[in-house]
């Protein structure tokens, strides 16, 4: 209620081509943030496998120290040492193998999540395209019904003015016209909502 709303004209924008399904699906897979997140998780899981394999890898450590002392001059006697240390654990009781298996399981899970995410996006785009096409067909049908209702009202009023028709025919025709106008408004509103859902499915909004 606190958000100001500005209604637009009842015109369905033709911002996308529902017939070009493959291009729209490709666009959605590139634009949707869920897909980007799933791809990043898969990349991170692959790096996790590489790190897990290095659990028992040898490590090299370089250490350097300096010192100085003196009675009058603190730098009278200076010394320094440099050391290189190599650490290599030959047996880890299966720790590296276990961590590698765990990392691979997480990678498989990330792959499955990427597949599920892409399938969900494809399904959402396809459903939105079908809904939009159906809504636009309903608009065309409603426009024809509105034209027929207007013609029926014109004929009924002419018959009534010529005293060959009844007033009930006029009121029935007016009721039909009202229903046709209402159906057209509903179809146009549904089409705009379908357009918005498609835009969202494509990742444009």
Overview of this protein structure:
The chain is mostly helical. It is 65% helix and 11% strand. It is built from four helices and two strands. The protein has helices spanning 21-31, 33-53, 95-161, 167-201; strands at residues 59-69, 77-87. It is rod-shaped. The model has no long low-confidence stretch (mean pLDDT 84).
Entry summary:
The protein is mainly alpha-helical and 205 residues long.
Write the layout of secondary structure elements.
Elements (H helix, E strand, L loop, with lengths): L20 H11 L1 H21 L5 E11 L7 E11 L7 H67 L5 H35 L4
Antiparallel strand pairs: 1-2
Strand order of the largest sheet: 1-2
Shape: rod-shaped
- Which sheet architecture does the biggest sheet show? 2 strands, antiparallel
Strand composition percent:
5-15%
The pLDDT mean sits at 84
Low-pLDDT runs of 5+ residues are none
Kindly, what is the distance between the CA atoms of the first and last residues, rounded to a whole number of angstroms? 22 Å
Rg calc: 37 Å
Q: How many DSSP H or I helices?
A: 4
